[in-house]
Design goal:
heterodimer; A: 136 residues; alpha/beta; Transcription Regulator spoIIAA; 5-stranded mixed β-sheet; 4 helices; globular; B: 424 residues; alpha+beta; Beta-Lactamase; Phosphatase 2c, domain 1; 2 domains; 6-stranded antiparallel β-sheet; 19 strands; 38% helix; elongated
């Protein structure tokens, strides 16, 4: 069962996700993300450290959120991917669609770099190249 | 005394006899295959028992906000808004309503009388309650011969309404069963069509042993594999996995297969086929679905395999079980349907004698056992190492046996598809 919880840290809106991002549960993640965007969040981090499974629809949902964020001028990143999820993203090459970090300090630096949350930035766009975002 | 019911003449035979008739009808509820016939008999017996001129069972359609009488021979269906009339009042308030003088009661709606020429003097309406408290409709009795319905009539009508409610519940169950059977038939047609789009036999390629296999998690699935000859004489091999499974994914799988074949008719270049397929999928996909695909062309004369992989890795095994060696063939580009344009660089490799190319969908890797462990790539490689000398179809059977044994009874949650290409 997927659960989400919101919190704000360092000017970044975090969605702490636990459980499995799969099947019909993906709609809960989309709803929580949409809610954050509608309430004006400009810099969102999906904390996935407690996500133990992501199926193909779950991966597709993360891509969908990334695309929606880019359209809305919202910066989105993933934080603390588990080994399994990280491997999935690597083998499918989807990792290159996302900004992803290991620590909240890295997220904070990234938020400053992309100009959030002070103003609406362009947000990340999906690229085909892999980038190395070393913090600070 | 003679009464009229829907223009038919009926002879009353006393309340006791009528109630006995109703009890007999009650005994038939559990075994009837004709609930509408039984409802007609309940209406008829109620007419006699209540000694009134007309009885109507109204069925509530909550979505339409409407009450409808049943279609019976020789009478038109009466449709009322649930906001109007005495029956509507009963359904809305879930209460019995006894109206001794219709003309003086503002809840009475005279529209039906105006349309039909019938004159309603008094009426009694009882809600038809389901077991979960939902009101399914109303039993309405019109024009008691003594001038109005009594309290005893209300009590009897409540008992009769319970009978009608049971029949309506039975009818709803039968309708649900019929809808389910219809859907199952449709699903079976979809399943057979999708199965027919999979290769009916393995390809015969000189110097190679190639086999494919597919088992959807549901009646239909989002995986498919395909093989066909390209215009330049090479053999095309395709394995794809649409995100998700079930009917929606299977429709996309059919589209993918058609797109690949159509684009392959225009070009034998696997990168071009993949890029064109992606462009159409990107314009068609608007939700979280995407497609991973491994597409290769095999030249039997040179044993060269040129492939592109849209988020779908593969494995190449050396074919020696004494010193197992296996390497992953990484994805060469993103899955299909995410970006409008894909930059695709094909990779060419030479298949050596006894080398085995293994293409699997994630249903194999991610099937979990009761301890929530994935089957995983290492176990797959172990099976391949132990059975790499076997024919391609046998190797797939061994993989299926191994993953099923590992799963130890956990249900198959994702589609399984495998293609094995062995150089002899």
């Amino acid at each position: 069962m997927l659960k989400t919880q919101e919190r704000v840290s360092g000017g970044v809106a975090y969605l702490d996700v636990t459980g499995r991002i799969e099947g019909e549960d993906v709609s809960m993640l989309k709803a929580a993300f949409d809610d954050l965007v509608q309430r004006g969040a400009k810099c969102i981090a999906l904390e996935l450290g407690s996500v133990n499974r992501v199926d193909s629809l779950g991966l597709g949902t993360l891509v969908l959120l990334q695309q929606a964020a880019a359209r809305a001028g919202v910066a989105l990143c993933l934080v603390r991917l588990t080994r399994h999820v990280h491997n999935l993203m690597i083998v499918t090459r989807l990792i290159q669609c996302f900004e992803h970090f290991e620590t909240e300090e890295e997220v904070r630096c990234w938020a400053v770099r992309v100009g959030q949350p002070a103003h609406v930035g362009a947000g990340p766009v999906i690229r085909q190249e892999t980038h190395d975002y070393s913090c600070c | 005394m003679t009464t009229l019911a829907a223009s038919a003449t009926v002879v009353p035979f006393g309340r006791t006899a009528s109630v006995e008739a109703l009890v007999q009808l009650a005994g038939r509820i559990a075994v009837t295959g004709d609930p509408d016939g039984l409802l007609s008999q309940i209406e008829d017996a109620t007419l006699r028992a209540m000694d009134c001129e007309r009885v109507t069972i109204f069925v509530h359609d909550p979505e339409a906000g409407q009450l409808s009488s049943r279609q019976t021979p020789g009478s038109d269906v009466i449709r009322l808004s649930v906001e109007d009339g005495v029956a509507g009042y009963s359904v809305r308030t879930r209460r019995t309503l006894n109206v001794p003088d219709a003309a003086r009661d503002p809840r009475f709606c005279p529209d039906v009388d105006r349309r039909t020429g019938f004159r309603t003097r008094n009426l009694l309406s009882v809600p038809l309650r389901g077991p979960d408290g939902v009101v399914m409709g109303a039993l309405e009795m019109v024009n008691h011969r003594d001038g109005s319905f009594s309290v005893a009539d209300e009590e009897l009508a409540t008992a009769l309404s319970a009978l009608a409610s049971m029949v309506l519940q039975g009818r709803a169950l039968l309708e649900a069963q019929a809808r389910r059977q219809h859907l199952e038939r449709e699903l079976d047609v979809a399943r057979r069509i999708q199965r027919s789009l999979l290769p009916q036999e393995d390809p015969a390629i000189d110097g190679f042993d190639v086999s494919g296999w597919n088992l959807p998690a549901e009646a239909t699935g989002g995986d498919f594999y395909d093989h066909f000859q390209l215009a330049d004489g090479q053999q095309a091999l395709v394995l794809a996995d649409v995100a998700g499974h079930g009917l929606g994914s299977s429709l996309l799988a059919c589209e993918c297969r058609a797109l690949v074949r159509a684009n392959a008719a225009r070009s034998s270049d696997v990168a071009e086929i993949l890029a064109r397929t992606n462009a159409v999928l990107h314009s068609d996909l608007h939700d979280e679905r995407f497609v991973t695909m491994f597409l290769a062309s095999l030249d039997p004369r040179t044993s060269e395999l040129t492939y592109v992989s849209a988020g779908h890795p593969a494995f190449l095994h050396c074919g020696r079980n004494d010193s197992p060696c296996c390497r992953a063939l990484d994805s060469t580009t993103l899955p299909l349907g995410i970006l409008p344009e894909l930059r695709v660089e094909p990779v060419t490799l030479q298949l050596g004698p006894r080398e085995t190319l293994l293409l699997l969908t994630d249903g194999f890797y991610e099937w979990m056992n009761p301890g929530s462990e994935h089957f995983g790539a290492e176990r797959i490689m172990d099976v391949v190492g132990r059975h790499c000398q076997e024919p391609a179809s046998r190797l797939i059977s061994e993989l299926w046996d191994a993953v099923r044994q590992f799963a130890d009874g956990t249900p198959q949650e994702d589609d399984l598809t495998a293609v094995v290409v062995k150089r002899l």
